[in-house]
């Protein structure tokens, strides 16, 4: 496998299944001598935590992170930060009914075929629980980015067909004020209602998240393969349930002409428009970096579904009711985490451009 | 920088600017003992070549690849394949007018700021010419994939507002029969007309490419960060002018419910629908892998544009007329190349799953 | 830093300082479906453990490893194996006397200068305690290698001036029968006496370890940079206190002529002599791989030493008596571990040589 | 294979066999805006070139390097530097006699077994000719290191039994004044005589090279696996014919006591002795880094040798007389090159230690 690491200078390696003893990770390449507020890290985890509101899964997971190394007298030492989050709600019994069955649009079938057997309890490594480790590393990255003036903010922009439009007023500071994490109260209420309705049907619904990174120094990103947008895209596409990502003008650029789409320069090097989404030739240009992400509806639904088991028999599977009807509210901190990890990594990589 | 390589087991490293002596690359990790048809590789390059039709740039570049190593008696030796493509149409004089100016939505400004100076002739490393090296490596990968039954095919799906719909009949074998590389002759004609019109205006237009990979063994891709879709996405987003990528149902999944979106299994492990786009939990499930890519309109336009130079003066810049009015026809082989490189890399990586 | 990982397909990442909460690591790229005997892993740790005999440090560390992920129903799942070893004998008070002082030939000075501050308790990350994590990963690798017929055995070959010669009979099975881990009982007794004597003087002494790997398939190792000997050498040189490594004939080859040194082939592809040490052109040739490693005398001595502190003052430092008088007896399992990690990594990498 | 790259921030990828069209490479991660003297690079190549004196191989290879990219108006652009060295003395006919035979202590057998076939002309990728590409990259690294005050110097310290002792006066500036590259004229003469005598016998002889790196900033190297000595060791062990490497006190440390071996600090952070060889805990401490390298006698000898072919037949093989009787004189610039590559890579990596 050996695919459990991301980043080059600032590197996260994760481990753990949803029903093992613990999940956790190692953050390597942390710059030294930086004061870390461990409470802020826990607060980010709490934003991802099950049971935080009525519209997310009601699983009981305390998600308390324990730091094992790399921090001394409140400051980073430059050594890797090891951490773990014990799994305290394992309830393995819940999963025996799907031991041999392949749930539609889950990774059961691909894992079973690839590895020859699998930890069938909760999806093993494919469980979204793994993303808690990403949130820890992302929270560390965010604190370091904060010291150099970089800010990463994500929010829900669409649930089902309800989406923010250019007419909708957006108040970034209000994102955490509603359980959907949508920065427009009216749309947030509509989204929340839709999610409740979908859940009542034993079903799930998709959604979109927008992410904006501001205060980015000019020059992050490498030409050719390691473009900043390419690695941000990879990091985002590595999140469960993500089906698409678009930067700046994205798919809407297709119908535009060059004369409309080009971002005219102002004398200070900023641009009048930002169709480029803050990245030019793979390198940050100092304008806000923005991108939009599509999440499919969660595959686990309460409704009964026809499926097959590993012996080729037809079976009926159904979710047990503690799953998210819509993933985007809890995915907001995950998107921020992955973005922060990539940004910090590229910030550190860029330091080698000059001797 | 050190960002000029892609892949782990099958790895491409490229070098070269549009106006240096040559561009080229090294393909490392090539499995040994495989017969390569070098003419087929040149044919792929010809599909990307300037001047191939009336609707692409009329620059004269012969784009003849020379192989320098790694092939002996017609077969790969397992050693790295070094290759180069001489730059025979350098005409550096063309670029003196933009020596100090920043062209809108080009990488001039970000390169200048990041590196302190830049090869202003033709965009240096940010030139799309670099992608010729990718096509060479991709053509090698395609021949190897062919031996294991994997096929990678891309085509133009949209130019401006003209797009293929579900009603449009598609004939894969017709892709190369029109200069747009659209598999529907009627739509191809409309697209071609639009491109001619846009060029007459001294302008450019965006477009979309669809890519489909068939015959993929089950099990390619690693959980967590190195998901097959994540690295395909990175590879695609590393192509010039790409603004977005969506897998399977993509952005349309957002408005769907889980009960609609889930791909029901058949007894043989295939699925009735393929909203997943052939990848489940980051791992290929044996169904066709498909994704769709948005290309913005080319930034270089013949029309005059206001801009600034590196001294902060306002200047006027304009393209010199040998640029593509629409990038997608020539981007088709590039998309195929990047996809083939990633697929083969993951095929080889997957061989280590069992001892 | 980001230097806490080793391996490509089989990859170990470690974390932890001697006086933090725990040390541990993540082993990624473990082939799936392999039965692991967790007791055997603990037994390897016990071979490295302080207090195991009268001639090693008498620190009390239970070194009990806890596995957190990657193993299900007794078999590897292919997912990363996370593990931790709690630090149960932290006694941080012991180290306050060296808080600001630089111990001669320790990493105090280099860490302080590089990172701006350091965890002064027990050397932080430079502590040999970190190698316990390597032994865990190595023990996993050894079990997997065992299934493909590869065996890794190391032993003490020299302590101070007492060394095994060609006349000394060696019984591999006797290695664990004496506390020095020397396969010749007579020499072992002499070595043990020397170590006791050195300790009585409040001093330390160097030593050599030999390692032999048998049953290696032909073809492991990559030409050019990733030669099997090059990465074995790196892995060995990354162990604390190692000053040198020689493969096969090593330094003695310098005085030989080609006609003496060349290993003549037998008809079955084996060779009459093995001056090459089992590696030819960076690739295993099927003969036993052997190398010899020099360990300097441990830097921490009970005797008082003149030194300086970080303010430039002259100070006197002395060890507190719980350190190893000679590192080689406890280093034997570490050498085996690092060797096994590299071998398995290259075994897995080699699987991509053919499609 | 995918083992043809070395370095992380400053990265060299090589390609090419001795009898293909050309050898060459790509140097990625070159800091921008640095003036390069291309003549100095060619001069380094000339130090490695065949035919440079009477005691080395008399093959005719002009070894003229051509730079293809990454340099603009005399300065590095930050883009990868691609380069090639045409093979102008291919004489493939010379090698037909060994097409199916395995030369003793060559890589013929391991390549044939690993890859299924091989370029038998001159050893293919295992040819020492590949090291010319390393010298090019090393010469670039040396020029950059020079700007930050780091100097890398190697010389021949031993040929056969003739070795420099502590009594021998050494004049670094005299290294290039004799064909052996030994900094003591008397010993140089003896060595030269020995080499001539060995050649007359149709035989070869081993030797040692010492390398010293001065002006190294404190703090280069990462704890744990990526120790500066570990990666220097790997780079050195990746050179053809190297059998051993020792840092600082090396094998002689084994017989020393800690009280003798420890390097006492002076008030300015330097040390009285330098048994550590300039590296402490894997990190440079500002003292000169020094190491010593053993090269075996060249495997190709003019004398007839018994061997086998790939069909299991007994055959007789013999060299054709254009090989080096002793490798160390020409290996001096290779050792410097590999050392410079590693040093610069770690210098650049270290820039990420602080934000």
In short:
Chain A has 355 residues and is α+β, with helices and mostly antiparallel strands. The first copy, chain A, has helices spanning 38-48, 108-115, 131-147, 185-200, 228-237, 258-261, 328-350; strands spanning 5-6, 11-15, 22-28, 66-67, 71-72, 75-76, 81-86, 101-102, 151-159, 162-163, 207-214, 242-247, 279-280, 283-284, 289-295, 305-309, 314-317. In chain A, α1 (38-48) packs across α3 (131-147), α1 packs across α7 and α5 (228-237) runs antiparallel to α7 (328-350).
Structural class of chain A: alpha+beta
Multimeric status of the protein? homotetramer
How many structural domains can be distinguished in the coordinates of chain A?
1
Q: Helicity range of the residues of chain A?
A: 25-40%
- Indicate the overall shape of chain A: globular
Looking across the biggest beta sheet of chain A, what order are the strands in? Answer: 1-2-3-7-4
Q: What is the CATH architecture assignment of chain A?
A: 4-Layer Sandwich
Gyration radius over CA of chain A: 21 Å
Largest inter-chain contact set = A-B, 108 and 108 residues
CATH topology of chain A: Chorismate synthase, AroC fold
In sequence order, what are the helices and strands of chain A, one letter per element?
A: EEEHEEEEEHHEEHEHEHEEEEEH
At the fourth level of CATH, the homologous superfamily of chain A is Chorismate synthase AroC
How confident overall, as mean pLDDT of chain A?
94
Main sheet summary of chain A: 5 strands, antiparallel
First-to-last CA distance of chain A: 36 Å
Our count of helices of chain A gives 7
Low-confidence stretches of chain A: none
């Amino acid at each position: 496998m050996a695919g459990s690491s991301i980043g080059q200078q600032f590197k996260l390696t994760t481990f753990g299944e949803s029903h093992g003893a613990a999940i956790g990770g190692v953050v390597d390449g942390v710059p030294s001598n930086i004061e870390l507020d461990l409470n802020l890290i826990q607060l980010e985890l709490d934003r991802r935590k099950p049971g935080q509101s009525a519209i997310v899964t009601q699983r009981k997971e305390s998600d308390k992170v324990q730091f094992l190394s790399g921090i001394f007298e409140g400051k980073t030492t430059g050594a890797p930060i090891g951490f773990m989050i014990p799994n305290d709600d394992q309830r393995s019994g819940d999963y025996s009914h799907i031991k041999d069955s392949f749930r539609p649009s889950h990774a059961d079938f691909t894992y079973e075929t690839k590895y020859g057997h699998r930890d069938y309890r909760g999806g093993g490594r494919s469980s979204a629980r793994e993303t808690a480790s990403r949130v820890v590393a992302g929270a560390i990255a965010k604190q370091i980015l904060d010291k150099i003036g970089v800010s990463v903010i994500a929010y829900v922009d669409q649930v089902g067909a309800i989406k923010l439009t250019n007419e909708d007023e957006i108040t970034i500071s209000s994102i955490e004020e509603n359980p959907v994490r949508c920065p427009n109260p009216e749309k947030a209420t509509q989204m929340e209602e839709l999610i409740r309705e979908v859940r009542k049907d034993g079903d799930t619904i998709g959604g979109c998240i927008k992410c904006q990174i501001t205060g980015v120094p000019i020059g992050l990103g490498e030409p050719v393969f390691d473009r900043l947008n390419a690695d941000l895209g990879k990091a985002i596409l590595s999140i469960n349930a993500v089906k698409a990502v678009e930067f700046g003008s994205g798919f809407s650029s297709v119908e535009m002409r060059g004369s409309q789409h080009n971002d005219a320069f102002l004398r200070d090097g900023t641009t009048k428009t930002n169709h480029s989404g803050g990245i030019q030739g793979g390198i940050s240009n100092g304008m806000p970096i923005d991108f939009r992400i599509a999440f499919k509806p969660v595959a686990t639904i309460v409704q009964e579904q026809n499926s097959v088991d590993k012996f080729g028999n037809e079976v009926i599977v159904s979710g047990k009711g503690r799953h998210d009807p819509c993933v985007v509210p809890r995915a907001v901190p995950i998107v921020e985490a992955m973005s922060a990890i990539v940004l910090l990594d590229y910030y550190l990589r860029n330091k080698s451009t000059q001797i």
